[in-house]
């Protein structure tokens, strides 16, 4: 790396360990923003209807690959949506085939298209026991949904009342706490001896709850889990930039068309795929931790999921003139607003190398 105006940083090509691609016209519109920069992504299964079986995942993967822009090299890593009717044998079959890389636990009602999620953990214990035996990770949306719990406390209560008891019962189960948003989550992961890791989103490193609420309700900063207090954002930045192998990038980039965001009951989700690497370079530079960006974006995730690090690299260059990203992208399903970090982005992804 050289001086401030011409700094370049070359890292292994990154992966996204938590991504919503949706389906149909929306998927065709957003997929190129991921496949341009990322080699692989863990694909979320909360479609309508959800991706419940290995056969569902195989068909969804085929649709993703059919929509991939010509020349892009991108591997979708498929997951299954855990329900109280999921069959352990099918999960084991999916893992053995190499198709299924994780199973996703959505507490019923926790987020978009989660109404078919788990209400009684006891009913899915046979599946979880099988996953512990075969080494298949459980990805959790770590929030309780009971109405008496404040929405800003959902993650901490989930850790105490659901996750910790589960991990004590099944200590060999590998668990990914997805989109960690609190100091509580960071501390819990750091305190674990084994089999626990956490993904951190782009936007939770940048916004706190003021972005959503100050000066009016701003629906394009609304996500689940919601952004928390500034003390939690700082804890996430410290964890992400620390080099700790238990933390890695999962953007949780979640596109919704603008009419479904800008309404009386707007959908949760922030679209960051297009500018994530520019945003991350900015954050890591602010934290004087640019050398740690490769660990967070390119190395820690593959190690956790038992995959090799990508052989290709990308180069980020710091430009004197800010990089311009569109305010919206147009998809066949409608316009999608791009995450605005509220500061100029000077880092650009220049190229990929074999």
Number of helices: 11
Label the structural class.
Answer: alpha/beta
**N-to-C series of helices and strands:** EEHEHEHEHEHEHEHHEHHHEEEE
Helix percent reads 25-40%
Total strands: the figure is: 13
Distance between the termini: 21 Å
Strand arrangement across the biggest beta sheet:
2-3-4-5-6-7-8-9
Radius of gyration: 19 Å
What is the general shape? globular
Uncertain segments of ≥5 residues (pLDDT<50)?
Answer: 1-6
For the biggest sheet, the summary is: 8 strands, parallel
Beta fraction: 15-25%
Mean pLDDT: 95
Quick synopsis:
With 354 residues, the chain is α/β, with parallel strands linked by helices. The chain is 32% helix and 17% strand. An eight-stranded parallel beta sheet has the order 2-3-4-5-6-7-8-9. A three-stranded antiparallel beta sheet has the order 1-10-13, with helices on one face. It has a two-stranded antiparallel sheet with strand order 11-12.
How would you describe this protein?
Homodimer. One of its GO terms (molecular function) is dihydroorotase activity. It catalyses: (S)-dihydroorotate + H2O = N-carbamoyl-L-aspartate + H(+). Zn(2+) 2 binds at residues 104, 141, 179. One of its GO terms (biological process) is 'de novo' pyrimidine nucleobase biosynthetic process. The protein is an alpha/beta fold and 354 residues long. 32% of the residues lie in helices and 17% in strands. The protein is built from 11 helices and 13 strands. The protein has helices at residues 24-35, 54-67, 88-97, 125-134, 154-169, 183-190, 209-213, 230-240, 258-261, 276-286, 293-305; strands at 8-12, 16-19, 40-43, 75-81, 100-105, 138-140, 175-177, 196-200, 247-249, 313-318, 328-331, 334-337, 347-353. The strands form 3 sheets. Strands 2-3-4-5-6-7-8-9 form an 8-stranded parallel sheet. Helix 3 (88-97) packs parallel to helix 4. The protein starts with 7 loop residues before the first strand and ends with a strand.
